[in-house]
Amino acid sequence: MRRLVTWWAPLGRSGQAALVWVTLMLLLALAAPLVAPHDPGQQSLLDSYFGPSPAHLLGCDGLGRDVLSRLLLGARTSLLGPALVVCCALLVGIPLALAAAWSGGWVDGVIARVFDLVYALPGLLLAVLTVALFGPGLTPAVVALSIAYIPFLARIVRAAARQQRVSPYVDALAVQGFGVLRITVRHILRNIVPVVVGQAAIAFGYALLDLASLSYLGLAVQAPTPDWGVMVSDTDALMQGQWLPVVAPGVLVVLTVLALTVLGTRIAGERTPYLRRGRARRRRPQSASAPAGTAGVAA
Amino acid sequence: MARLLLHRLGGLVTTLLLSSVVIFGSLYLAPGSPENVLFGNRTPSAAARAAVRHRLHLDQPLPVRYWDWLTGVLHGDLGTSMVTGQPVADRVGSGLGTTALLVLFASLLVVVLGLGLGLLGAVRPGRLDGAVSAVSAVSVSVPPFVAATVLISVFAVRLGWLPASGRGNGLDGLVLPAVALALLSCGFLAQVTRNAVGEQLGREHVQTALARGLPRAAVLRSHVLRNALPPIVTAIGLLVAGMFASTLVVESAFALPGIGQLTIQSVAQKDFPVVQAVALLLVAAFVICNALSDLVQALIDPRLRTAGRTA
Fold it and tell me: Domains of chain B (ranges plus CATH)?
């Protein structure tokens, strides 16, 4: 219970709300087949653009498919994709960043230059090119975005780890004969966990945004599969003045990205500019020294 | 300054060359031979296939083809579209104007609104600042495709004020796309501006100047804004560069005949020569934007002129 309180309270009211929203979305995505009132693929042309009713809480789309069920099932691809992107980027990025921060010198120089180079390429463009090569689908899009997001995460991790690297406790551990791996993983990485988790949450939001854009363009998740990006691309409904089937998934994208950004900035300890007013929360000293997102933009 | 310029120019050319190698190489290492696009579902005779491969120079080794392509590009010859048979330069040229105008329009919106809102938030703490911050926080979470959908739904379908697709007459067709493109960047710039200006406002030399009774407007202009500019310029450079990538989405949403739509079409048709040219063009736009923002930084901040790098 104490542990819960130590990380729940510093999130602040907005951070707590964001966490609740993200958790809710993840739970709904997991339980989607159980909660969905209808089969998301079931068409009935008689119900075409049927408005909200007790049977169909958010109405039906042009093919008479239940919008609410499609939103619930769509959460699965919409959230799974970016989650994979962040995991892959972390798996490659953290070891590279730690290696760069630990060794310094030319190793650090080379890794930092490569990060800068990849960082200079927009992820969306990289993903579109990959799709041109391997054809549309969730897999090529996820792979391309994973590569594009490595520097987004690793640059921050490298900066934070470099600060830890020069602090006395690291020297003390090294003098005591602890190995490189043990010091970096068990001490340095542990101390920068808030930075990593926070930046990962922000990356999750941006990856969600990019993947949804790709699905919207018809380059990632393909049409009959329910997905938020795919649902927004229903121009037929849009032109018919039926805004609910297209705007509802868009709103979910916006709210989830917003929640992830707020949560990420809260965890990383960067005072969110739009929430600074009022209670300035004191955080425990060792994590407060971590340089939050600011270094990424300025460098 | 001249050294910095040369340094930047060198870096720019290197990045472009590197990305051209990557783009050229990867497109031709892709599974499935490019000539299959021409044959479609038919299975050609060996002789026909060989003839086509010869015509597309596919029978030559990769470095030779890359060299031919590169010299061609430098002479303004971007190759021929495999789908329409038109010169790529013509197809790209016809979309360039639309995209450039769209990005310019959106950039103006971003600079005016983003800077304005950010400044407003920084100098008027309290409720106004809170409102500005909330609005910018939400708008950074609205991807261009959602913004485009909502704008079309409200202003094109419901109210019928502006066209939902195509160029329309004059600038009509560009208003909604520019807003959809600018929304996210506006919010981002407002946040950056607000933080940068807010930080400078708290600095000692600003407090001293205010305490000595210098007019607030003068202090803001020459002490606060001037010092707050570097992060703002960096942000503008990154945002404008990012908008070139977002034209892929926005032009498709509004069916605007620009580079972005051409890219998506060519990707769908596997029209490799066009994809190559457009991808290189977008990367070039991206790199040039970043280099320009670095140069402007150096103009603003003399300390950066001697050092080659900002970091």
Answer: 88-305 (1.10.3720.10)
